[in-house]
Amino acid sequence: MNCLFFINPVAGAHAGKKIVAELERSLHVRGLSKHIVFTDPEHLETQVLSLASGRDLIVVAGGDGTVSAVACILGTLDRPPPLAILPLGSGNDLARSLGWWEVWNQGSLDYFWSGISAGKVEAMDLWSCGEDSKFIGYAGFGLDARIVESVSQLRMKRFCHYFGKRWNQFLHVAVGLKYILSIKLKFGSTEMDVCFFDKKGNINQIRLKDHATLILSNIGHYAGGGSLSSVSCWSDGKLEAYVIPTVRAYLELLLRGRVASLQGPRVTYQACSVKIIGKQNLPVQLDGEWAGECMARDTIKVQHVRVLPVLVPPANFTVKESVGRRWSKDPILKRDTSSILPDPATTGN
Predict the structure, then answer these.
(1) What is the dihedral of CA 240, 244, 249, 250, to 10 degrees?
(2) What string of pLDDT tens digits covers the 349 residues of the chain?
(3) H-type alpha helices, the chain
């Protein structure tokens, strides 16, 4: 099996560099060919497009931002290889939703490779947000995007590069609380018109204002492990829309999934596409990364682009055999993943 690793070298306080050393020391398994690349944000598209074609598996080691960036570039290929995640970020919502976060926390690389051995290739929806941006996990508009913007600005500081996952999680909480506590004094409110379209073209239209948040999600986790609705499905061509009307409701959302007594939030709408018109400059985040602002009166269209192949470990996965034994008697991936991908000639994408 030909496996390509894209590793974010600064993720998890430079944990990516340690992972490379472990990979070089281990996994001398018959039939496995591995190629390791450190991601370069300024040249990531060139890296992915020049190296990914023809591989049996792409493994992305990093956080949600790195995984999403690689996945969106893979989405430009006619036949992208399956994608697996080695979670090194502070949030890891994509890895949590697909099951890789749990596998990694059970036993690091040994469990990870056994999870790949037992995994199954499934389809995952890729979404566009405007003309030039895409996401696979979730998009946020309003309050939560402002918090992501503030955190992103702090994380760009040089001193933040050397702190670990716990520091990044604390940073999100601290900045979020500071922002929320000062919001009425320092920041303008959010106002947007939103149209939700179902498969038949029927429309639900609402107006959000004050300090509301709109979250469009394709997965079951949000903001570093918070639980969303159990109806979430990453391959049904639908987004779950959560309308969070107040600051207090947003705080409650963050607690759901972290406090056992609180159930996950209810889905406001399920939509096959969404149109958003900001009445003021509207902040946007995609897969937990700051994506900029939509200018007042501009329109954002969120639409389904295609499906991507992702490798998913079995539910409630446990390692019962050594990596060597599993690999020697059972090839990891079925090479033909075309059954889950539409014919590029018929999609128009």
Answers:
(1) 80
(2) 899 999 998 876 667 778 888 887 765 555 678 899 999 999 999 999 999 999 999 999 999 999 999 999 999 999 999 999 999 887 899 999 999 999 998 877 878 888 888 899 999 999 999 989 999 999 999 888 888 887 776 666 554 444 555 555 555 555 556 656 555 445 556 789 999 999 999 999 999 987 788 999 999 999 887 888 877 899 999 999 999 888 778 878 877 766 766 777 889 999 999 999 988 889 999 999 999 998 888 999 999 999 999 999 988 766 544 444 444 444 445 544 445 665 444 444 4
(3) 11-25, 44-51, 64-74, 93-98, 100-118, 143-155, 165-186, 247-255, 323-329, 344-347
pTM: 0.86
With vertex at residue 80, the alpha carbon angle to CA 108 and CA 221, rounded to the nearest 5 degrees, is: 50
Label residue 202 exposed, middle or buried (CB < 10 Å: 0-12, 13-18, 19+): exposed
The CATH 3.40.50.10330 domain(s) of the chain lie at: 2-127+307-347
CA separation, residue 311 to residues 56, 94, 97, 120, 166 (Å): 11, 12, 12, 5, 27
Place of tokens 């609402």: 206
Every domain range in the chain assigned CATH 2.60.200.40: 133-305
Q: Is the separation of the CB atoms in 215 and 267 below 8 Å?
A: no
- Report the distance separating Cα 256 and Cα 265, nearest Å: 7
CATH number corresponding to 2-127+307-347: 3.40.50.10330
CATH entry 2.60.200.40 includes domain 133-305: yes
Distance CA(257)–CA(223), nearest Å, equals 11
d(CA 256, CA 273): 26
